[in-house]
Amino acid sequence: MSDAPATIAQTRSAIAGRAASAEEITRAALARIDAANPALNAFLQVFHDRAMAAARDIDRRVASGETPGPLAGVPIALKDNLCVGPEDGGGRTTCGSRFLENYESPFSATVVRRLAAAGAIIVGKTNLDEFAMGSSGENSAFGPTRNPWDHARIPGGSSAGSAAAVAAGMVPAALGSDTGGSIRQPAGFCGIVGLKPTYGRVSRYGLVAFASSLDQVGPMARTVADAAAILGVIAGPDLHDSTCSPREPEDFTRALETPVESLRIGIPRQARTSANHPAVAAALENAAAVFRRLGAEVIDVDLPHADYGIAAYYIVAPAEASSNLARFDGIRFGRRAELGPGETLMDLYCRSRGEGFGAEVQRRIMLGTYVLSAGYYDAYYLTALRARRKIKDDFDAVLAGTEDTAEDTGGRAAGGGTQAARGTAGPGRCHALLMPSAPTPAFRLGEKAADPLAMYAADVYTVGANLAGLPGITLPGGFAREGGVELPVGVQLIGAAWDEARLLRIARTLERELALPHHTPP
Ligand code: GLN
What we know:
Layout: H1 8-16, H2 22-40, E1 43-46, H3 48-63, E2 75-79, H4 110-117, E3 121-126, H5 160-167, E4 173-178, H6 184-190, E5 193-196, E6 216-221, H7 224-234, H8 252-255, E7 264-268, H9 278-293, E8 297-301, H10 309-324, H11 345-356, H12 359-372, H13 377-398, H14 411-414, E9 432-436, H15 452-457, H16 463-468, E10 472-482, E11 485-494, H17 500-514
Parallel strand pairs: 2-3, 2-4, 7-8, 7-9
Antiparallel strand pairs: 1-3, 4-6, 5-6, 5-10, 9-11, 10-11
Helix pairs in contact: 2-3, 5-6, 7-17, 10-12, 10-13
């Protein structure tokens, strides 16, 4: 096998056909990581010895005639808010925070257990905005990750390291988490595929919680087929997470082979604004033209409450974060401040949190505490929940689900949906919505770092799917030329809840028809 970064599908067939061993593939991935990581800062930990041992174990099993799992010998990276416990070799789970700099989880996330059981080789943990709060990768306590296409630019966030690692060819795939766009936005900025599943599709057990009603784990890969393969492994019921749906996942890989039915694709009016960079607008229109050429009906749709998305998200997410992060008190997990003589327990809490959390995390905790406090709860938090419901109803009104989906998605807070919006058919309703993954290509390091509102605005096209609990996928849609360098531009498809099989099929069709020349940075 050549040194070129392979997809999961290629890796799998190389191993099955004995063209390469898992050991060779893993050694090559580790070498690429070692070579590229000093410049990119995508990985916070690399598990050299353990990965090689796991690869040799896969080779032994293949040699003895065992059927290797669906990801046997595939090197995969994990965002460092996913816990790896002693059963999977241990290591630190830092969440990109000083607070958890030396934290070792006593158990593995369900998704980590499932990857391991499928034969994946977990090669390391990737950098992220602290506690997944950010849109650029600059909020990590361990330094920013850089975009492989242009090292002066951000890779997006918060799954910054996972996106950069896949884009740079260090690994064929990685896991990220998406609370308001953290898989899809960096995937777009780095020219890869990123899928946020329906809320409840994938277990959150062992994912360090940011905003529990919005968080989902999902795959980041170079092709839609690879994302489908990983989703098939990590999805499905988990008794450790009561918000994880009991429904069994379909065979998403097989679903890709089904021909796409006559499609109706909606483009939200709110996604065609003058704020879009010309290359973003061009990628969107080009994707629409591709669908039309394939015989799909492409229509304009209205998401009348989309403009409230950012405001609602930046109330709900910090509110939940302020509660989730209360556990980091200097007593049980991670950092504990040194106390001087006469200092109290309260000093311990305050000092540990003051020293351990970075500026953005402190800002979110204060925001969240404020909007939940007596006197402001109704004005802010409850109003945001109402907006969330409206946003979800907007999506339900324009998306044709494969089934009645209103009750079990979007978290209890967002649940519901109008009666008219339920069921399948529905005249004028769409099989997927097409929109950008972000209004611009990747911005420069430092460009928005001092302006939180400008940073938050980068999430305008991604928060909706989280607020509504819907699946969304970003794939490469084109390129922009900025200052002589080529930067990827993503396009996003959003589907009805539990409609990942169809969403992946639509994305696969678009990917094939776009046939972009190259998906790897120069
Ligand atoms: N950029 C958003 C935020 O900062 C989303 C982050 C995420 O999805 N984890 O909250």
